[in-house]
Amino acid sequence: MRIILLLLALCSFQTLADRVAIPSFRHSLTDMSGILTQDQQQQLTQTLHSLMQSTQAQVAVLVVPTTGEESVEQYATRVFEQWKLGDAQRDDGILLLVAWQDHTVRIEVGYGLEGTLTDVQSSKIIHRLIVPAFKNNQLNTGLVLGVEGIGSILEKGELPQNQISNNNDWISSVSWFLVFWAAMIATLFARGYGKPLLWLNGVSILISFILIFSGVSDGLITPLIFICFATPFISVIIFLTPMSKKITDKLGTSHSRYVSSSSNHSNSSSYSSDSDNSSSSSSSSSGGGGSSGGGGSSGSW
User: Pick from 56, 198, 228, 248: most CB atoms within 10 A?
Assistant: First the structure.
């Protein structure tokens, strides 16, 4: 029994030893990656200081090369607990953590700000502002946009206006694609491809649910889910339009032709079978067989 306890203790110590150390909290910006220049660090530190003065919330940024064996969520929780961000009574701390080599980012929010900076808003800041810059290898730009996004939510309750316009551009692009998608579905209807349409709708719904429950987050995932969900609705709308009668008639004509062709083929086969049976009767044959933060959001790029 003592040996087992000793082994468990050694495993626990080894696990703790393998954890990436948390740096001391000395400034609102801590860059352990060495990527940010001195000027970039000073400007971002000043932005964080101004944000704290205007909102009273304590926002800290930490950039590390990796979180090791821990997930970005686990490491962020440890950092938040050790740094004790925010006022003790208000619990209004926010941590923006980036593991640059792991390509992961996390916004950890104190319980006191959960109603202000929600998980959904944190996710929007990550995927609309931070991740696009990180994909272009622009660490400083992503951090600046992320801090500005957090500040805008804390001060105004909404994302910056330039992000709203980008969102409108995205909606416009998806709208044009939906028009093309609807035209393609209408073409399938007109040509009488009933089974492919059923498969298309079924697969679209299946893909959308898989993407939702997989938790995959990326800039292209949201419009893909939207289009997949829209596919059966587009099919129903097209079927209910005035052209549906023509489509139905065409489908009926195609089906009649198919039935007629099948009937003729069946009669021919029956005649052939009778002939074969007649021949076989005259000859014999043989055959075979076969506490931390209260909320937040994470992302990757």
Answer: 228
The structure's pTM equals 0.53
Q: Are strands 295-300 and 104-109 parallel, antiparallel or unpaired?
A: antiparallel
Its sign, for the CA torsion 73, 301, 100, 106, is negative
Q: Is 56 left (phi over 0), alpha (psi -120 to 50) or beta?
A: left
Asked whether the CA dihedral 134, 107, 113, 61 is positive or negative, the reply is: negative
Instruction: Say yes or no to pLDDT of 194 above 60.
Output: yes
Sign (positive/negative) of CA torsion 210, 213, 218, 219? positive
For residue 277, what are its two tokens?
A: 């049976």
pLDDT digits over 124-149, tens only? 999 999 999 999 999 999 999 999 99
Instruction: Give the C-alpha distances (Å, rounded to integers) separating 273 from 267, 277, 282, 285, 288.
Output: 10, 6, 15, 16, 19
Q: Quick one: tokens of 148?
A: 């500005």
Q: Are 36 and 140 in contact (CB under 8 A)?
A: yes
